[in-house]
Every structure is written in structure tokens, then in C-alpha cells.
């Protein structure tokens, strides 16, 4: 009997055991949502994708195949469609037949991509992890915050920093804890990134409302007073839009309504002949309203009463005031930093331009400041130096070597040109500044024409070496091209060289002696004519080196020098004739002034130059001898 009883119990248990499915969770999930997966809808497929993602890593190939349109149905069986044929999604076994590929639309594929990121963040391939972060950043959802926080530790430092930043950005957007959001905002410190700004700006977005009483829990950005903060017409229009007041009646609408209800020469009991009176028209319309023939409309008194009975305010979409305060503070600090960075960037641009003007004017400071010779051909010496650099590059292919050769070559060429100009023209016109100006102006035109005949009118390239490409950055948003940095250093080098020559060499001593008293210098055995020739050649040679430097970023044409001759003269005159430190100060003033005017009036270059010249004219009225005038007998010569 015991054996029979055990057999009966065992047989009775079989149906109960058969009711418990012995299938994998993935198979159960696919079977449960078969119809929705086969015909997905963007509005209802979200929970299905979440259910598949919750299965775990084994669902990843299915989701990836679905997104790539490689998931298909073979009868009632889900299969993966590959180059080698079909395979069962659960068992991986190869199957035979012709499957129907499932083709989700772009909206469904976007949801699938969002679900896949939790698997991609743990992928061994860094490229896949980076793609997952990019997908989250492009279309973030609240669920991604927990995915980022719960993902495996990132081993790649760059990806770890990127994931940490993305986690903090999503914390600001989606975390329900206000304290965590505020801490995330403050964690960015001095960051001015566009993604950070894009997260903060929606927190300060406002909606304008009107109500008899403002909501007690609302995060009010500002309460508005009709007539001051908001026009009365806009305030009443807001009341009408929210159904809190009837619309105003225009004259045209009133006349149309009255004309539509004329009966026996009367409207609302008032004769047509009397409707020229606005008050009677209002009374006639009121009678029609009482009769239910036209909708009610607000009068001027009704408008005043409605505006007085309601309050108006801009309400933040973000309900927590502490979060909006933190966002506002961060954006305010960011704006201050951006203004500071723009100022620093402008200062660097002005310093770069000042170094260019100083380099172009230092040779002129020698010839004009020391020798009192107005050399209008100084710009053409700059042009000759630039063309010397171009010719050197056509001979020597290596850019670095050609630049090293071009600098002394340009000095030699323009030094000799300056000596020749002095011997043939300048020395014969000594102490005749007007004739010197006219003669050198003629030489300037002749040199430009010679350059056109030799090199043509097209701009010639003067390419900088590769190590001068790019820019030097100073923090976020502040940078200056490497070429301009090199020119700045070159200007400092020539300043030091000039000071060394004038203060520490025999030539400098003789130049200072001839400058202060040529007659006394001659009686001491110094040849003033020879010193003047060497001084003129030195100034011309420095102009040639300036031409090579300027040609690295400016177009090399026969008119190159004319673009800098005016600024060079202004630099020398404003700084103080005959004073190298004054030339440096003048270059800083001219460069800073030009950049400042360009910022205020960037669209009109000619107007900017006009303003700069006007400023210089006014400046000279108060400081006719410049910022740092030369002292002693040399200043009186």
C-alpha cells in the first residue's frame, strides 16, 4: 500500500511540475513581448526594451542585432541574421529557413541604443566605451545616471575623466536630491565648458504666469508690475490667454457686431443715427450682450479691474530655489571669467601687434630718431627683407634652415641697400628734411616698381617651419599663434641688441657722440659721415629682418612695406624721437589702441584707422615730444 501511495503522489505532482516553465529568462521575455518586438511603436516600446535590458548581458546581442536590423522571425522563433546564415537567439544553434528581418524605425533604434550603453560601458574595447559615453551625452535620459554610477570602474584615465564629467552633468539634470545637484554644480569650479552652460541654462528658464494669487510653492524668478515690468496690454493679453478675463473688443469688431444686429433702424434699442457716440455704441453692444446675441467684452474699466485683481510673475521651471540660485551664481561667475579671458586674449593680441610695430619701427627709430632723416623708403626695406626670405626658401627647401639663412641674408641685403641709399641720396641732402622726404618717397616708388617687375604682382608665399605652426595656450580660451610669440621674442632680442650696441660698443659711443654734437665728435677724430652711413645701414638692416618676420604671417607683395610705414612713423613720434624706450612705449600704445578700436568697431577697418589717427593727433597736442622725449642737447638738435 505504501508503494502504491507513493506512485499516486508522484503522478499527481507531474502536472504541477509541468506548469513551472523551465525556460531561460531571455526566452520568456522574448515570448512575452513577441508582438510588440515584431511591430514596435515608439510610444509603447520603452518598457519592452527596459525588460530586455534587465535580463542582463545575454540580452546585449539581441538588442544590438535588433538595432542593426539583424534580428528576425522564423515562424514563432527569434533568430539572428548573419553572413553565415541564421542562428537561434537563445541557444545559438544554426537554423534553416527564410526569416523575416525586423526593421525598427530611427526612434526605436535610439531607445535601443540607450539601453545598450549599460553593456557598452563595461566593454573591454575602449572605443565601445567611448561610443557609449557619446551616446549618453547626445541623448541623455534619467535612467542613464544610475547606469553611469553603477558601471564598472573605468581604467582609461581620459575616459574616466569624461565619464565623471558626464555623471556630474546628469546629476545636475536628473538627480532628485537638490543637495547632490548643488554639489555637482559647485564641483565644476571655474569650468566654462559649453556642455556645462547647456545644462545650467534650462535651470533658469522661466514661464510667465498670471493668477489671483501666486502659488505658494512656486520658484518665482521675478514678480512683474503691469506698466513697469510688463506692458498693460501684454499683461491683459496674458489674462485672456489663460481664460482669466474676456478679450478686449476692437472698434472694427464692435462695428461688425452692431451692423449684424440692426433691426428696424435700431441696434440694442438705440437708433442708428445716435451710434456715432462711442458711449452709445458701448451701450448698444452691452444690450446685445444682455440679450445673449454677442459674447461679452471687456471695457476699459474691466481691464483696470482685472489687472488690479491679478498678480504676474516669471516662474522658474526648476522648482527648487536653491538649485536655481546655484546655477545663477555659476553662470554669473562664468560670465565674469569669460570677460576676463576675452580681456586677456585682447591684451595678448595687442602685445603681439605692438611687437610687430616695434620690430618694424626700431630701424626707423635709428634713422629718423638718431639721424633726423625722414626715410619714406623704410617700408620698402621691410619689403626687400620679406622677398629675401622668399628667395631663400626657393633655394633651400628645408624651412628651418631657410629661415636661419634668411634672417642674416635679409640683414645683409637691406644693410647694403641702406648704405647705397645713404651714399647716393641722403648724404647730399643733409639738414634738408623736406628734400630728403621727397627723394626717399621717390625711391620708395621706384623700389616698389622694381619688385613688381622681378616678382610680379601676385603675393608670394613665405612659409614658416612646422615648429612655428599652431598656437601657445594660456588656460582655457586664451591662445596666441606661435609665429606671433616668435616675433615678440625677436623684438625683445633686437631691443637688447640695440641697447648693447648703443651702450656697450665703440660704435654706439660714436653714434651718441655724433648725435649730440657732430662738430665736437669730428674734432675728437670721429668721422661723422662714416658713422651716419653705418647707422643708416644698421637701421635698414633691422628693417630687413623685420620684413622676414612679418612675411611669415602677412602676404609678401610689393606693397608690404606701405602697410607698416605709417604705423612705424606714428610709433616713433608718439614714443619720443631718438629714444628706444619711447619707441617701445609707442608701439605698445599704438598696438593696444588699434586692437581696442577694432573690438569696438570690428566691421569698419578704415574707420578704425581714422579714429586711431585722430587720437594720435590729439595726443601730440598734449605731448608734442612724445611719451619719453629725448633729453639734453640731442633733443635740441
Could you characterize the architecture of this molecule?
By secondary structure, the protein is an alpha+beta fold. The chain has three domains: about 25-175, no CATH class; about 205-315, no CATH class; about 340-635, ABC transporter involved in vitamin B12 uptake, BtuC. The chain is about 65% helix and about 5% strand. It contains 27 helices and twelve strands. It has helices spanning about 1-20, 25-30, 35-40, 45-55, 60-65, 105-120, 125-140, 145-150, 155-175, 180-185, 195-205, 230-240, 250-260, 280-290, 300-310, 320-370, 380-395, 400-425, 435-455, 480-505, 505-515, 520-525, 530-550, 560-575, 580-600, 605-620, 635, and strands at about 70-75, 75-80, 85-90, 95, 100, 205-210, 220-225, 265, 270, 310-315, 470-475, 480. The strands form four sheets. A five-stranded antiparallel sheet has the order 4-3-2-1-5. Strand 1 and strand 2 (about 75-80) form a beta hairpin. The radius of gyration is 42 Å and the shape is flat. Mean pLDDT is about 80; it is low at about 1-25 and about 630-635.
Amino acid at each position: 500500500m505504501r508503494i502504491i501511495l507513493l506512485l499516486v503522489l508522484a503522478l499527481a505532482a507531474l502536472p504541477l511540475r509541468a506548469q513551472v516553465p523551465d525556460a531561460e529568462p531571455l526566452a520568456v521575455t522574448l515570448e512575452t513581448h513577441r508582438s510588440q518586438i515584431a511591430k514596435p511603436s515608439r510610444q509603447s516600446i520603452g518598457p519592452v526594451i527596459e525588460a530586455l535590458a534587465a535580463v542582463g548581458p545575454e540580452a546585449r546581442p539581441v538588442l544590438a542585432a535588433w538595432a542593426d536590423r539583424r534580428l528576425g522571425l522564423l515562424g514563432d522563433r527569434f533568430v539572428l541574421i548573419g553572413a553565415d546564415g541564421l542562428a537561434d537567439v537563445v541557444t545559438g544553434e544554426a537554423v534553416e529557413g527564410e526569416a523575416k528581418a525586423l526593421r525598427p524605425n530611427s526612434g526605436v533604434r535610439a531607445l535601443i541604443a540607450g539601453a545598450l550603453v549599460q553593456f557598452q560601458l563595461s566593454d573591454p574595447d575602449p572605443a565601445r566605451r567611448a561610443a557609449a559615453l557619446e551616446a549618453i551625452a547626445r541623448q541623455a535620459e534619467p535612467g542613464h545616471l544610475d547606469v553611469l554610477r553603477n558601471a564598472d570602474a573605468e581604467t582609461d584615465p581620459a575616459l574616466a575623466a569624461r565619464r565623471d564629467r558626464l555623471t556630474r552633468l546628469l546629476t545636475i539634470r536628473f538627480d532628485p536630491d537638490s543637495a547632490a545637484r548643488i554639489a555637482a554644480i559647485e564641483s565644476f569650479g571655474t569650468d566654462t565648458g559649453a556642455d556645462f552652460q547647456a545644462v545650467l541654462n534650462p535651470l533658469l528658464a522661466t514661464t510667465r504666469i498670471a493668477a489671483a494669487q501666486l502659488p505658494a510653492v512656486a520658484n518665482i524668478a521675478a514678480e512683474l508690475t503691469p506698466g513697469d515690468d510688463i506692458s498693460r496690454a501684454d499683461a491683459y493679453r496674458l489674462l485672456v490667454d489663460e481664460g482669466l478675463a474676456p478679450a478686449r473688443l476692437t472698434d472694427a469688431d464692435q462695428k461688425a457686431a452692431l451692423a449684424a444686429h440692426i433691426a428696424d433702424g435700431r441696434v440694442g434699442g438705440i437708433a442708428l443715427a445716435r451710434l456715432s457716440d462711442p458711449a452709445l455704441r458701448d451701450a448698444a453692444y452691452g444690450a446685445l450682450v444682455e440679450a445673449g446675441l454677442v459674447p461679452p467684452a471687456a471695457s476699459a474699466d474691466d481691464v483696470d479691474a482685472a489687472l488690479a485683481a491679478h498678480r504676474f510673475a516669471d516662474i522658474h521651471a526648476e522648482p527648487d530655489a536653491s538649485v536655481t540660485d546655484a546655477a545663477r551664481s555659476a553662470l554669473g561667475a562664468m560670465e565674469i571669467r569669460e570677460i576676463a579671458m576675452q580681456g586677456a586674449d585682447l591684451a595678448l593680441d595687442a602685445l603681439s601687434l605692438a611687437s610687430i610695430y616695434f620690430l618694424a619701427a626700431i630701424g626707423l627709430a635709428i634713422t629718423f630718431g638718431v639721424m633726423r632723416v625722414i626715410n619714406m623708403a623704410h617700408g620698402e626695406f621691410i619689403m626687400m627683407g620679406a622677398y629675401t626670405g622668399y628667395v631663400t626658401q626657393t633655394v633651400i627647401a628645408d624651412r628651418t634652415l631657410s629661415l636661419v639663412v634668411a634672417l642674416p641674408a635679409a640683414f645683409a641685403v637691406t644693410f647694403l641697400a641702406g648704405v647705397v641709399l645713404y651714399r647716393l641720396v641722403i648724404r647730399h641732402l643733409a639738414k634738408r628734411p623736406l628734400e630728403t622726404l621727397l627723394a626717399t618717397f621717390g625711391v620708395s616708388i621706384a623700389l616698389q616698381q622694381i619688385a613688381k617687375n622681378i616678382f610680379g604682382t601676385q603675393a608670394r608665399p613665405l612659409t614658416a617651419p612646422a615648429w612655428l605652426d599652431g598656437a601657445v595656450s594660456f588656460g582655457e580660451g586664451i591662445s596666441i599663434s606661435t609665429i606671433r610669440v616668435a616675433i615678440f621674442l625677436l623684438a625683445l632680442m633686437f631691443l637688447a641688441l640695440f641697447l648693447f650696441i648703443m651702450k656697450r660698443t665703440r660704435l654706439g659711443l660714436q653714434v651718441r657722440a655724433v648725435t649730440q654734437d657732430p662738430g665736437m665728435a669730428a674734432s675728437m677724430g670721429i668721422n661723422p659721415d662714416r658713422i651716419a652711413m653705418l647707422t643708416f645701414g644698421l637701421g635698414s638692416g633691422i628693417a630687413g629682418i623685420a620684413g622676414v618676420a612679418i612675411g611669415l604671417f602677412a602676404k609678401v607683395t610689393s606693397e608690404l612695406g606701405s602697410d607698416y610705414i605709417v604705423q612705424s612713423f606714428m610709433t616713433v613720434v608718439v614714443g619720443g624721437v631718438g629714444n628706444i624706450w619711447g619707441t617701445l612705449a609707442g608701439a605698445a600704445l599704438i598696438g593696444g589702441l588699434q586692437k581696442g578700436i577694432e573690438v569696438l568697431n570690428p566691421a569698419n577697418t578704415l574707420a578704425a584707422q581714422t579714429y586711431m589717427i585722430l587720437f594720435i593727433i590729439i595726443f601730440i597736442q598734449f605731448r608734442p615730444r612724445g611719451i619719453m622725449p629725448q633729453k639734453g642737447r640731442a633733443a635740441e638738435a
